[in-house]
Each structure stands twice: as structure tokens, then as C-alpha cells.
Amino acid sequence: MRISINRHADTPVYLQIKNQVRDMIFSDVLPEGMLLPPERSLAKDLEVNRSTVIRAYQELKADGLVGSQVGKGTVVLHQTVKKSSLAEGYINPLPWYQLFAETVTSSNDNIIGDIMAITGSDNVISFAGGIPAPSLYPIEIMREIQSELFETANRELFLHSPVEGHYPLRESISYLLRQRQIVAAPKDTVILSGSQQGLDFMARVFIRPGDTVIVEEPTFFGAIQIFRSAGARVIGAPIDKEGLRTDVLEALLVRHKPKFIYTLPTFQNPSGVTMSLERRYQLLNLAYQYQLPILEDDPYGELYYESTPIPPLKALDRHGYVIYLSTFSKSLFLGLRVGWVTAAPQVLAKFAQLKQMTDLHVNTPAQLLLDAFIRKGCYERHVAVLRQEYAARRDKMLRALEKYKVPGISWDKPEGGYYIWCKLPDNILRHKLVANASKRGVVFLPGEAFYPDGTQGDTHVRLNYTFASPEQIETGIKYLLQAVRETTITAGNHENERNLKPLV
């Protein structure tokens, strides 16, 4: 039995012996019933202590590879699985779904991926995704900045960055936050791979299985998925035209004792509602009273089309209860995957720890590119263009909804953000509407995706007006409302059929 010992290796000698004997057994060099050398003899041959060989043999016995037989010594045991049986027999497919954790098997987990796939399809007018207009991407400016960075930053573009993020970019974000009336030093921010990562980190830091999280109802479906995947019970608190109903919220806080409250107070997704200033102070006071953190998600705050919006909760918070999450995905483009969190030092330390374990740091070229884009004043000019263009697209969609209006449909005009939240006729069959709209090449997001229990919202749809071109918006709304008309008639509303305006 040939065994070689490397006395300079980190692997202990007894494990070197054990591993080599094991490999010889698996390769049939040592067949079943083969007698291994006595411990004293093998120790002498290998020039090691007998105790080292004894320990190696004990490890082999523990693995069921060898056994002791009285009068014989240590012998190789029968192995229940032979190589020949694998070649000759049928291999059962691996039961993947039995092995997955229960927290990642919920039915709506693919909704974001489905939206991304549909949005890229030809001959489809998509009102489904929360995606900025590709025609407005500042490509030329980005190309110029990138060329400059190759000259000035050189190899720094491809080096690692600190886990917390490229410090100059954190300085630039501090400047942007001041425009939102949030006072935060660069050290108060950690750069993330999009705000979606911030939601994931929030869940991993705060939620244990069985905990409760309070969200608005309706709310961003991605947050519902992430919180549930961490084992949380997600409870919805209703909103009205002033945002989260704090009177209902207080009762929920007493009953459920949640770990935190999740809110999109400005141009809420999907409703487009902005929480009033009074409600914001009421929410903060409840958080202080019950000692609850608030996760404020603010991806749309800069995209206002009327007057400057109400200050974020973070700007009003004087006691460090608000964890503020934002992103460049809605004001620039999704592909950069750069967002940030601004919070208390204790929270940032946990986020940085998770960042290090998850992906170490955000893409370095993206961070340098964004920092230069902001410092040159390009970001503020770009957002000003978006406000004008998106307001025009919103108004075009509103006019089309009015032009092709079907009885029983209603909506509110959002003052910013990406979405129009439409109430459909009460007797509509949602699954048939999806099919009828799809036949016409129009996709949207059904309302039930935005409710924690999935049983509400079946008479609502969320319509995005930023991604489709101005020419597509009217055509898409026309076809969508044709589908609503057809589905309503199919549902048996013959009275509506007589009263419908002709669609042209």
C-alpha cells in the first residue's frame, strides 16, 4: 500500500493517510475484504507515530470504509454503491424542489423576471415595468465621461472599491441629499447594487422567521416577496389620497408588534399617491412611540411634475428612526445597478457587513462614472429633462384614457413618479382581461400583485407611462380599453355594452 506523506503540508498527517486509503478503496485498488497493514507496521514504514495511524484508521471506520475483525485486523468493508451499478441502472432525476428552502417557493417570485422578459419583446406595448425611457438615456455624455475616465482614472477604474462605496460618490450623494433637504455626511451612506439589494439587506438584518412587517396596501410587490422570503408575516395597512392611514396603522402596531414599517411616501408604487405632511409627522410620532424603525423607499422623489414634493421622512426625522433607501435606476437606467442607503451608523455597519459577504462592493466603473456625471452637473440637467418629458407622457396617457374611456373605469392624476393606478369596472374578469390585452400586444401589471394577501386589487391595474414611446401610449391605451370593453361584455354587463362610446 503506497502512501506518501508531505510533512510540510497544512493537512495533518493522519488525514493524509486517511484520504489516500479512502481514495484507494473508492478506486478498487483496495478491494472488499483486503487486509490493511497493522498500525505498528504502517507507522514504521511511514516513519510516523503509531497513534497517527490509529487515528487515521478510526476516521476510516467512522466513514464505514473499514472495520476490525477479531484475529485478522483492519479490513476493507463492502461498499453499498458500486461504480458498475451507476452505469447499469436508471439514475433518478434530482428532486430539486424538495431541496429548496420553503421561503423561496412562493407563487409570485418570478414576476420581476417576467416583466423584464416581456419588456424586451418585439411587437409588445408594455405598460408593465418600472423602466425609464431608453430614448432619454444620456448616452453621449456618458461616453464622453467614460473616455475621460480611461485617461484620468486609468487602472483605478478596474480596482476594487471600499465595501461602503467609492468615497467621492458618497460625497456626491450627500450633495444630492441636500437637494432633498436631507442632511447626511458621506459617512452616513453605503452604496448598494440597486435599491433591491437594500430591501434584501433590510430583511436579513431585521427579520427572523415569524416576525411581522407592516407595509402599505397596495405596495411594491418586490418588497413583499423579499420580506416573505426572510420568513416574515407581511401585513398591509391601507392608504387613501393622503397616503398611509395612520389611524389604522396604530391599531396594527398594537396588535402585531412589527419589526419595522415599510413605506414609499412620495409618488407611491403603484398608486402614485404622495403622503401628506401631516400624515408624515403622524407616522414619525407612531414610530417614536412604539420604537419602530421606518424603511423609507424613495426611488421617484426627484421625478415631480407639478410643485416640489413634500420633504422625505428622513428630512423630517430628528431621532434617527428612518432608514432611507434610494437609487439611480429610475432617474438614469436600470443597467448601472447603483443605489444607496442612508441610516444610523449601527444599521450601516450591518449593511456593510452583508455587502462584504454578498458581492464585496458595487461595480467600480459604474461608481466612478456616476460620480463624474453628478459633479459635472449632468445629473441635475438630465433629471430636469426627465421631468418635462415624463410629464408629457403622463398627460398623453391621461388624455388617451379619457378619449377611450369605458364606463366604470377611473383613475387619479399622479403628480410625479412612473404610474397611473386604474380602477376597472367591478364586474371585469381579470384573467380574461390579461388574455384579451395580450392578444392585442399590450401588457400591464394586475393589481393583486401589490397586495400582501393576493386577494385584493383584482379590479385595479398599474400602468407605466415612462417606458413606452409617446406614439405607443395612445395606441396601447386604445387597445387596452378595447380589451376592457370586450372583457366587461364577456362578464355579462350588457347595460355597459349599450352605453359604450365607439372606439376609433
UniProtKB/TrEMBL annotation:
Record EC number: 2.6.1.9
EC category: transferase
Keyword rRNA processing attributed: no
Residue ranges occupied by any HTH gntR-type domain in the UniProt entry: 11-79
Annotated GO MF terms: histidinol-phosphate transaminase activity
Domain of life of the source: Bacteria
Key words, A-Z: Aminotransferase, DNA-binding, Pyridoxal phosphate, Transcription, Transcription regulation, Transferase
UniProt cross-references to Pfam families, sorted A to Z: Aminotran_1_2 (PF00155), GntR (PF00392)
Family the UniProt entry places it in: In the C-terminal section; belongs to the class-I pyridoxal-phosphate-dependent aminotransferase family.
Protein name per its UniProtKB record: Histidinol-phosphate aminotransferase
Organism: Sporomusa silvacetica DSM 10669
Record gene name: hisC_5
